[in-house]
Fold this protein.
Amino acid sequence: MKPTLEFPKTIRFLNRDEIPNNPSILKGWEESKTANIVQGYTFRLNKNNPENKSIGFNFFAEINIDNSDLWSLVLSLSQTLPDVAAVLFGDIDFDLNYGNYEERDGILEFISQYKKELTQDAFISFGLIYNDDESLVEIFIDESKYIKYWGIDENFFREIMNDFGLKEIENLEFVDEYPKVREVLTRFDKAAVDSKTLIEIFSEKYLNQPLFILN
């Protein structure tokens, strides 16, 4: 099956003349032509993974969705978080920054100003998380711009997937499994906030606040 997923403009597969003299990269490039990179999701129950038994999530999913719908799906999945959450963000070459816990809706209102950058900038990772002694809910979007989701309420999750017309696909593949090119967003959109500036904005907003005390 030929990949049919809509990527952000900043991510693409290699062109033939960009492939170095490396057999493994050439093999990956050839395989990418028929990769099963389509809209859909994978689903794995946590109880089937003894290593994660003590971590408070019930299942893990990876989700491909057309890039133009990515932000809408993030907003829908954010409703599976409690009323407070923390934002995760960072440059892909450095460790993630973890913000303090704040009101979830306030976080969404602020970061929605930068939905273009967060969904299309291939040099930035971001997410939302709630984690306490008993539960973990996390929505994470790395530089390849598909969603990794750790959740608790399977029914709610599957309802959201159905709302977006997404089906569970066991052999689903993802763009970062193949050789790809990442380009800066400002090359395509001069009005976009560059990744360095955006991380500075988020750092000032979320790393210099008093701690939110969880009950």
